[in-house]
Amino acid sequence: MSTGNPESHQKLAAVIVAHPDDETLWAGGTMLYHQNWNWVVVSLCRAGDADRAPKFFKVLNAYKAKGVIGDMNDGPEQAPLDPEAVEQQILDLLPAQHYDLIVTHHPHGEYTRHLRHEETSLAVINLWKKGKIDADELWVFAYEDGMRAYYPEAIPEATIYHVLDKEIWQHKYALMTETYGFKTDSWEAATTPTAESFWCFSHPDEAMQWLNSLSREP
Fold it and tell me: Do 20 and 54 meet the contact criterion of CB atoms below 8 Å apart?
């Protein structure tokens, strides 16, 4: 476990998430702290959302990040997506190059539960394993909500656990409430974590072994 700030030398890093705002909720503090990194943010859903999509690109400006957004089905019924279609959407959106770091959702998501988060995570891990995503490291978000008992919280036992500086958290919160426009009494605003945590992997086989261990949990 690391409680300090994540390493600060420059990287080319991609954040692959299901929705606009996921990058900020779960990794916004890390992105703000590392503004010297070259960030690319990929959102798989909501390109057709006339409210959220433009705000996504305004938020990316705050991170000095590049980004792209897809329009995979994100209807309220949350019907499962074809895993191969999710993988292909990622390949279509993510610029094809070598990355120092890929950041994405946890295979179980960050709260109970959102299928698109889970599908995104599995697709990224599988693409890394297949060599279709070229990256030195993979970080997956490390949060849990006690099966809806409380708002999602960063897991202290994760590979990286980073309590955000006050100014960075306030900037992150402002991106959620002022730029994305979530009301201060909304779930999103109340959730905005004051700490960020990640499970980190340096080899695809390591990530797959971890993934398989999760699938065996009750």
Answer: no
